Amino acid sequence: MSMSKNTSNRNGRALEYKVSLALAAIPNFSLTSRALADNQRDAPKFAELSTLLQARYTTGSQKIAEWAQQQIQGNVSIDRLADEAHDVTDIRLSSNQVELNLSVKHNHKALKHPRPYSFAQACGYEKGTAQDLEHRSAMDSIGKSFRAKAANKSLFRDCDDVVKKSLYLDVCNVCATSLQSWVLVDENVANNLFSFIVNTGFYKIIVETKPSLEVSIEDYSNMPAPSMVTTIVNENRLILKFDNGWEINNRIHTASSKISAAGSQLSLKFDSQRTAGDITGIVLFHDNK
Fold it and tell me: pLDDT tens digits for 45-62?
């Protein structure tokens, strides 16, 4: 795992820890046993942060807690959830009447990071189905071709730019081809893919700490479901246009610096960003300092 990934994971866990503590300070709000255990694990991560980042996390968490207190009342449990492909919830607030799912992000607004080899699963097909096996076979062919062009290189950065660009284009084209074939025969594919990348039924909490502190919330609690999706491939990007007005730009890039051994999957992932589509959002706090 790279240093940047380690830092990102540490900061994210530290933020979840601080937000859950701020929520637990609200009268009648209490942490579950799992949240208590996660907080005990993540307290050292918060302690490792700079004094400035700790202060911004503290202020941001207080603003989030003030907002949450307006959304849910009564006896409220605060749970912290493990990362799952089908659920982006980091913190779940539950009362007898209401459930509030929060996805907490630090300094980024990416929707998700789909993996090209498991693209069929993102579209609703189980691993091992005909659709999945055919798509993975096409991805394996791309991998073999790339390794041949890479000429025994062990790191992606040592490969010629033309070779890497060809890999990215091939991956985007294969995913587009698979998707286009599936939507012709399966009316659920568009909504399955949209639900996987975007998810629904939650609020995204975004804490930006550079250059100053800003806390914003995006409402994904009730998203319109699409019935159709079309694709555009542009070099290293797979652009998805859904008929509910959303457009998602998926940029393919490496997830590891190393080129895996022959017979293994290449370490690749998409970075999915919304480029069109309505979403209700509010800025809870902005500090110009």
Answer: 999 999 999 999 999 999
Percent of the chain with pLDDT over 90: 87
Between CA 272 and CA 111 the distance in angstroms is: 5
DSSP per position, 74-99: SSEEEEE---BTTB--SEEEE-SS-E
Cα Rg of the chain (Å, integer): 21
Q: How far apart are CA 244 and CA 200, in angstroms?
A: 14
pTM of the model: 0.83
Residues near 139 by beta carbon (within 8 Å), at least 6 away in sequence: 116, 117, 171, 174, 265
Tell me the H-state helices in the chain.
3-24, 33-47, 51-71, 119-122, 130-150, 161-183, 189-198
